[in-house]
Amino acid sequence: MTDSIFREGGPLNIRKSGSDQYTMNISLPVDRDGRMARACPDKDCSPGYFKVKGGTGLTGKQESAFCPYCRNAADPGDFVTEEQLRYARDLALREAHEGIENMIKGALGLGPTGKNKMGGGFLSIEMSLKPGSKPTVRRPFEEEVRRDIICPYCGLDHSVYGLATWCADCGKDIFLTHVKAELAVVGSMLGDVDRRREQLGTRVAAKDLENCLEDTVSIFEAVLRVLVRRYKYQNGASAEDVDKFFNGIGNTFQNIKRSQEMFNSKVGLPLFYEMTVGEIEALAHIFEKRHPITHNLGVVDKKYIEKARSSEEEGKEILISKEEIGQVLELSMQVFTSLHNRMFLEKK
Predict the structure, then answer these.
(1) Pick from 339, 220, 333: which is nearest to 269 by CA?
(2) Least packed by Cβ within 10 Å: which of 130, 150, 203, 310?
(3) CB atoms inside a 10 Å sphere around CB 270
(4) Is residue 26 part of a domain?
């Protein structure tokens, strides 16, 4: 009779490590791009879920890994997901199922045929064991994460939700790398406008330009929100204070003039540091074009003419060019870089 639930060796390289302890090696599945899911050990971290590609990033033994959202540092093995834990338990249960079956066979003296006949003549007993089906092992269900980034410091290839801040391997601040990647997507869309105009017509090309502008304004607002939130936490604000602040500013960061005023009065930093008046006015003028695009199908209305002080005629479609959006992308990155460096790097 065998007294071991687990058979040593096998595909999981099982070995006994104590009187009632076993060690097994489980290879966690990766997605179609070769990335493995990871989860922040801090259950309060949101979203806390990301992916990393094996063979990239730091080489050699790594003592700590980092959450790209909250920079929680822990042993790399602590970043396991719930689905990966479930998968490991399923594999262990399947191995235990086979071990228990062998223990029962040994206790009953069942041979290779799975049967044992006792006695003879008028009285004989035959025992047999019909094995049940092995427990099913399902691959971990993992989410799609489509913001791929490569750390400029250690080379880690990883995927995150939204605008993360930290590299999951080296722990360095790579926020601006994420921002550049987001703006580069808009730049790629912008570069394809002429081809789509030829193939699909001027209306489609016009919508592409409008979408590029809307996406750029959305990125501008999102980046400023992330930077201000982090800056306030860094300076001792509570989560309640930060939530109250953002509830009070609404969509301020979609407007250049209001953003500038709010930074001066409530953040205590100039938003457009070392930018010329002409550059700030150009940024504001192009941002204002978003109003008729978003609220009036791209048709100029009185509200836009009054706010933008434009000479464009009411009732006509707003005109926006590739060059204007390209200028906004460039100026936006200039704003983000300056602000990020003044908020964080200069304090080190």
Answers:
(1) 339
(2) 130
(3) 14
(4) no
